[in-house]
Specification:
With 565 residues, this protein is of the alpha+beta class. It has three domains: 273 residues, BirA Bifunctional Protein, domain 2; 129 residues, YbaK protein (Alpha-Beta Complex), CATH 3.90.960; 96 residues, Anticodon-binding domain (Rossmann fold, 3-Layer(aba) Sandwich). Helix content is 28%, strand content 28%. It has 16 helices and 31 strands. The strands form eight sheets. Strands 3, 7, 8, 9, 10, 11, 12, 21 and 24 form a nine-stranded mixed sheet that branches. A five-stranded mixed sheet has the order 16-14-15-17-20. Strand 14 and strand 15 form a beta hairpin. Helix 2 packs antiparallel against helix 6. The longest helix has 21 residues. The mean pLDDT is 91. The chain binds one RNA strand of 78 nucleotides through strand 21, strand 24 and helix 14.
RNA sequence: CGGGAUGUAGCGCAGCCUGGUAAGCGCGCCUGCCCCGGGAGCAGGAGGUCGUGGGUUCAAAUCCCACCAUCCCGACCA
């Protein structure tokens, strides 16, 4: 492709809208263009990467016999009404009516459609297991799109669905799919972790996420470097760091005027946040409870709900607390609160001589100790881990990392086949519900994740399998333009995906653009050619230069691109 | 949906406080010359409903009100 004729523009500055380096680089390199919040066009260069990723996906999915198809983006509402999600999905599901007044939705996911399709097509166990997938635009009217294509409203997704005879077959397909995902993400040049995850509104029981490590990611995970344990923060088990055993000191009242928050109290008393005991009140259907956790940790309400076996769990309002306890939040503590259920986090039990509210205005207690000064009703893990907390399995210190969710696996079971009455006949001639799994990859989001992990101060560094072009031929002046064209033709003829920078610009501009866009090999036709009759090949990632004779270029480039893969 | 911020040329910004001088700068774009190994130089040029609507005023990019859009934090989220 001649660059002068390619829809291609780079800029030195990125829009002020971009916060993440991947977003900035995608805009600067001219991969995408925004039209509304979370709505993007993929320009030719960006689209080439999407196409490359798609073909890696297709290649790997093919290995396990998954079949590609294309389902409608516009979905009739009646299937959604049957599954119950017409009401339950929330405002992310865009609903509208056609000219006849029939309800439709823009597809945010395709369980209903595919289940209906398979229900109509498959009636015998002999045709199972069956795995189908598509790569298609999804629309979710997100509350807050962010990070460019990291969380867009319209985005490209690969979604696969498996239909099995029974649970065992589902588990076997699921495991194969997990292997496929691992190979896809590795080929895309990604550093990722597999973590246990919640199933959310999709439903089902078992679920794992693939998280690409990135400081700009929205998801937090804990990683144990020692034994490899990884989990989403909200699901993570952990043990608080063991404190040195201190002698229990006598409890003592101190005046703490206007010091309410953990930060204020720790500053006022010159202690660490972890020396403070937080008391948070929740209203439940079983009455008001007090939840106790160490000052440096946060309460995980999902864990708390499970531990208490309650449905309703709401932070108690200031007025209610004042009425019940007789003091405003900030000065509450567990001592003397025996008539309420006291739920203590493990962190509280592992610490001695904590600072807690005295249930009196502007007053705290020093040296409060669980077991001696108050008796917790229930003790358990109800917090989020912090970096430095211990792995539940090997007791090593764990780290909290951020990442971008790039893939998600679900064992759905019979959730959709039951609601849509999708059955097949088993060996005994009886009707069974399909046992389903579904498996997603955020294809457009992968672009951002890959760039997050593969860039430097100059720009993007594309991994070899998904680079939009493998090489760019750069003549450094008019004198070498013709030779450059010959080389470009030669490379093209030999199947090397090549750009030819025929623009009338200074060499520096061309080098910088090539680096910004991240082309793995620059083929430079300049002084070295004029003086030494050699062409330079310079690599993007390592900036290594080798000099090659003109007639050897295509052969050498073929070798280099093969090696890179 | 709560908190914070921003809307002036394709992009990045100044002007606004203190209304009138003035629609201005840099990048990019077009023409010509000159350059050509890491974002050159000179000369000329095109490009604007100052987010939208209303109000105040002799006069509004500038002051006031409402709305819209966008971004960030949070909540939310296959």
């Amino acid at each position: 492709m001649r660059l002068s004729q390619y829809l291609f523009s780079t800029s030195k500055e990125s829009s002020k809208e971009a916060e993440y380096s991947s977003h900035k680089l995608m805009l600067r390199a001219g991969l995408i263009k925004k039209f509304a919040a979370g709505i993007y066009s993929y320009l030719p260069l960006g689209y080439r990467v999407l196409a490359k990723i798609s073909s890696v996906i297709e290649d790997e999915m093919d290995h396990i016999g998954a079949q590609r198809l294309l389902l409608p983006f516009l979905q009739p509402a009646h299937l959604w009404k049957k599954s119950g999600r017409w009401r339950n999905y929330g405002k992310e599901l865009v609903r509208f009516q056609d000219r006849k007044g029939a309800d439709f939705a823009l597809g945010p996911t395709h369980e209903e459609i595919i289940t209906q399709l398979v229900k109509e097509e498959i009636s015998s166990y002999k045709r199972l297991p069956l795995t189908l997938y598509q790569i298609q635009t999804k629309f979710r009217d997100e509350l807050r799109p962010r990070g460019g294509v990291i969380r867009a409203r319209e985005f490209l997704m690969k979604d696969a669905y498996s239909f099995c005879r029974n649970k065992e077959e589902l588990i076997s397909v699921y495991q194969k799919m997990k292997g496929v995902y691992e190979r896809i993400f590795s080929r895309c040049g990604l550093n990722y972790k597999v973590v246990e995850a919640d199933t959310g509104p999709i439903g089902g029981k078992v679920s794992e996420e693939f998280i690409a490590l990135a400081s700009s990611g929205e998801d937090k995970i804990v990683v144990c470097k020692h034994c490899g344990y990884t989990a989403k923060l909200e699901k993570a088990e952990y043990e608080p760091l063991e404190e040195a055993q201190n002698e229990l000191k006598a409890m003592k009242e101190v005046s703490t005027p206007n010091a309410r928050t953990v930060q204020e109290v720790s500053q006022f008393l010159h202690c660490r946040p972890r020396d403070i005991l937080k008391t948070i009140f929740y209203q439940t259907e079983k009455g008001l409870i007090a939840v106790l956790i160490r000052g440096d940790h946060q309460i995980n309400e999902a864990k708390l709900k499970t531990l208490l076996k309650v449905k309703k769990l709401e932070i108690a309002g200031n007025n209610l607390i004042k009425e019940e306890i007789g003091v405003e939040p900030g000065f509450t503590g567990p001592v003397g609160l025996d008539k309420y259920r006291l739920i203590a986090d493990n962190t509280v039990m592992r610490s001695q001589n904590l600072v807690a509210g005295a249930n009196r205005k502007d007053t705290h207690l020093l040296n409060v100790n669980a077991g001696r000064d108050f008796q917790p009703t229930i003790i358990g893990d109800i917090g989020f881990p912090l970096s430095g907390d211990m792995c539940p399995f090997c007791k090593s210190r764990m780290e909290v990392r951020r990442g971008i969710e790039i893939g998600h696996l679900f064992q759905l079971g019979e959730v959709y086949s039951r609601s849509l009455k999708a059955t097949f006949l088993n060996e005994k001639g009886e009707e069974d519900y399909f046992v389903m799994g579904c498996y997603g990859i955020g294809v457009s989001r992968l672009l951002a994740a890959i760039i997050e992990q593969n860039h430097d101060s100059q720009g993007v560094i594309w991994p070899p399998e998904i680079t939009p072009f493998q090489a760019i031929v750069i003549p450094t002046s008019e004198k070498t333009l013709k030779v450059a064209e010959d080389i470009y033709q030669d490379l093209k003829d030999h199947g090397v995906e090549t750009l030819w920078d025929d623009r009338d610009l200074s060499a520096g501009v061309k080098f910088n653009d090539a680096d910004l866009v991240g082309i793995p090999f620059k083929v430079i036709v300049g002084d070295t050619f004029l003086k030494e009759d050699r062409i330079e090949i310079k690599t993007r990632r390592e900036a290594k230069i080798e000099k090659v004779r003109k007639n050897m270029i295509s052969q050498r480039m073929k070798e280099l691109t093969q090696d890179a893969k």
